[in-house]
Specification:
There is one protein chain. The chain is mainly alpha-helical. It has two domains: about 40 residues, no CATH class; about 40 residues, no CATH class. The chain is built from four helices and two strands. The chain has a two-stranded antiparallel sheet. Strand 1 and strand 2 form a beta hairpin. The protein is elongated.
């Protein structure tokens, strides 16, 4: 557990009411947090950090392999439970199992 002491002024935070304006001066940051349109624009352009790497929202990274096709497929609950038990990546593991099955028959 992180033992770092918070520097947040909780009395000030908890004393705010819905609709209160946020104190802001032009040198405080890249946008006025009281301007809803500016806030939306800033967040739309912001980078999202996942696992320590930058991942833009709504953008796929470079493809490692040809793009797969989205399909709807009904599988038995036993199959789903088996692959999900292995944790994240269960759909990829199903794909690999099916590919191995195809290659064995070829």
């Amino acid at each position: 557990m992180n033992k770092t002491r918070s520097e947040t002024d909780w009395k000030r935070v908890l004393g705010r009411k819905e609709g209160d304006t946020i104190p802001y001066e032009s040198g405080d940051g890249p946008y006025d947090p009281n301007d809803a349109e500016a806030t939306r624009t800033w967040f739309a352009r912001a980078d999202l950090i996942r696992d320590g790497r930058v991942a833009r929202r709504g953008k796929r990274g470079p493809q490692k392999a040809p793009t797969k096709k989205l399909v709807s497929l009904r599988l038995s609950s036993d199959v789903i439970e088996h692959f999900k038990a292995g944790g994240p990546g269960w759909q990829t593991r199903i794909d690999r199992a099916l590919l191995r099955s195809i290659k064995r028959r070829a």
